[in-house]
């Protein structure tokens, strides 16, 4: 479900067509002190579960831009709590859902 959301948002929010088979995926559990402030600002981290589950989707577009979407989900319910978008190493958007 999160993969479909990534593909849909890449198209609707950023105008980038994505083939889902070309999307990389990794999931990590992080303690709050392990989160880089450039990824999720400290004031946001403290509102999220500790440890937090971060699902990361990675894609490189035809122009060589590297896109990463980090989605923090509640481990048991899979509810989306936080979303951060990074393009070429810079945070370009975030949304707090909880």
Q: Explain this structure to me?
A:
There is one protein chain. 17% of the residues lie in helices and 40% in strands. It has 98 residues and is α+β, with helices and mostly antiparallel strands. A 5-stranded antiparallel sheet has the order 1-2-3-4-5, covered by helices on one side. The longest helix has 13 residues, at 2-14. The protein is globular, with a radius of gyration of 13 Å. The two termini are 19 Å apart.
Question: Short summary of the structure?
Answer:
With 98 residues, the protein is an alpha+beta fold. 17% of the residues lie in helices and 40% in strands.
List descriptors:
98 residues, alpha+beta, 5 strands, 2 helices, globular
Pattern of helices and strands: HEHEEEE
How many beta-strand segments?
A: 5
**Unreliable segments (pLDDT under 50, ≥5 consecutive)?**
none
| Share of residues in helices | 10-25%
Largest sheet: 5 strands, antiparallel
Secondary-structure-based class equals: alpha+beta
What is the count of helical runs? 2
How much is the radius of gyration in Å? 13 Å
Instruction: Give the DSSP E fraction (strand runs of 2 or more residues).
Output: 35-45%
The largest sheet has its strands arranged as 1-2-3-4-5
Which shape, going by the Cα principal axes? globular
Distance between the termini: 19 Å
Q: What's the mean pLDDT score?
A: 94
